[in-house]
Design brief:
Layout: H1 2-10, H2 14-32, H3 35-46, E1 64-70, H4 75-89, E2 97-104, H5 110-122, E3 127-134, H6 140-156, E4 166-170, E5 175-176, H7 180-189, E6 201-208, H8 210-213, H9 217-220, H10 223-241, E7 258-262, H11 263-278, H12 281-288, H13 313-323, E8 325-327, E9 330-332, H14 339-351, E10 355-365, H15 371-391, H16 395-398, H17 400-426, H18 433-461, H19 465-468, H20 478-499, H21 510-515, H22 523-540
Parallel strand pairs: 1-2, 1-4, 2-3, 6-10
Antiparallel strand pairs: 4-7, 5-10, 6-7, 8-9
Helix pairs in contact: 2-17, 3-18, 10-18, 14-17, 15-20
Amino acid sequence: MDTILWSIGRADGIGILGALWRPFLIGLVLYYSGYLGVWISTLLRSARLTPAFTGLTGDDAVDVLVVIPTLLRSAGDLDDLRAAAATVVGNRYPGNVVLCMSIDGCDDRPALVEQLAGWARNYRGAATILVARVAKRAGKGVAVAAGLARAEQAVRDGELPRLPPVFFNMDADSVLGAQALERMVAKLVRPGRFSRQRPMIVASNVLVRRAHYWQGWRGFFTLEHQLALQVAREYMTSISVARNNLGLLPVTGVSGALYCTWTELHEQQARHATFMRSLGLGDMVRWWLGARPPSFAGFTGEPNVLATAGPGDDTWIAWIAMAARWRKGHVDLELPRSPLHALGRLVTSFWFRPIAYDPLARVYTATPTTVRALFKQRVRWNSSRAWLLRRFGWMPFFSWHLGVWVIFDLVLLIAIHTIITVGLLGWPLADRPASWLALVVLGMIANAVLRGAATLLAMIQDHDLRGHWHKLLALPLAGLFHGVFNIATTIVGFTQDFLLFGVNTHFAPEETLAGSHTGRIALGYRLCRCARLIGRALRHGDVPPGRFWLGWGSTRWTANGYAGWTNPANKVARGGVRPTR
């Protein structure tokens, strides 16, 4: 550490930043590489040189299942849920719509759930409305699975003639834009112009509702509306433009506000979660030596719905979609036959991408408007990918068309944020801080120009410059916002996840996280657990040596590493030793 500080202290800005500008520039090129394609396609669309959207008719207008997972805690939540249902029904999808509102933790407010169920039974309109129930809160992923299970039960009971082939996940605080459902289904069911393949999942264009971020100049000068304005501008670039999937690095995620995929794919995710955890190092070694990999079709393990929940549940399903392919008209999740086949799928995945996007399939949502809530949300977002990669186990090392892009995306995120952090924090320690600071300021100006250009491009793509002009007012503070709510949250999330006790966002209960059978790296937890077990072994002599001393799961002497996060009554938290008789 002394050597590093001495080196920084002797630097004048040219040495260190001169060595960093190339990898930083490469990172920016990879990040912004899709913008040129978006600009060209937007200009062609504006000039009406590309085919106009053709609505769904006949066989294209397939039945859809829309699942809205949510907590129901108050009369206001009930009103919001009915409003969400109204926006689905009012979207005028040309096919049959089955809407299932899935209540997570329904035993907490049974009277409200009964009111909702009664309203659904008495509904007479353009959709079939169902209510699914998860008795004890288990997390969003479990509630989504319960919604699908409720639709399957409705088929068995004769309420539905068949299970809709297209599955939508929609947040309860979302409002659909015109033709959102129809445009996304069209993207899903129609083969690509060049690939002639149908995608596996379609992302929506997520926008912050205007009333949420702009209420006149008086609101502009409040922290609440300034945060909402910054998020609204950021969504237009990080989601609206970046989701076009035209860059050198394929998109590896969708937004949980609204996405659609094949019901067949969603049905398999719980069993696939168990299959992934069954893969081991020995399987991969044998695969490299020429043996066939384990077969998902022949796998007999029990589905693990709990493994589908937790932070990053939308990214979870996006990664499964990336791993899937079409085979004989059905979704196939088998591993590549050999490393050569894995390489072939990787090359193919660069050109034919399973995640599609329609910029005009808009969905309007809300955002946290306090520093604490927004910071907590971003810690969860920015740290979830490392945890998800751990949950996927050895599978990405078989399915390179998933693993290479996901790992590359994670490395790129860490590299760019690290370089920015070094540039911002290193100048006060330099021998000539003025020259260092001058380079940092030039970099910030260049970054501001890029952000401004990206924002304008997103506004043009959305065909509504007048409606989005307020977002340009966010540009002066966009760099500061990015530093606090993206870079700092990444540092905090990774530090907690890798060096301390793990990220606690309360997004899912501890029982659900423990049931996923996936731990965290969390070196702080593991070392504390080891120290306490050593102490007990010295005092009582009843703890045998073993790898579990540095483990994560529960044993006779230790709680699961997740224990104590969401249950204050659990006193055996973070590796505490249970008393035994």
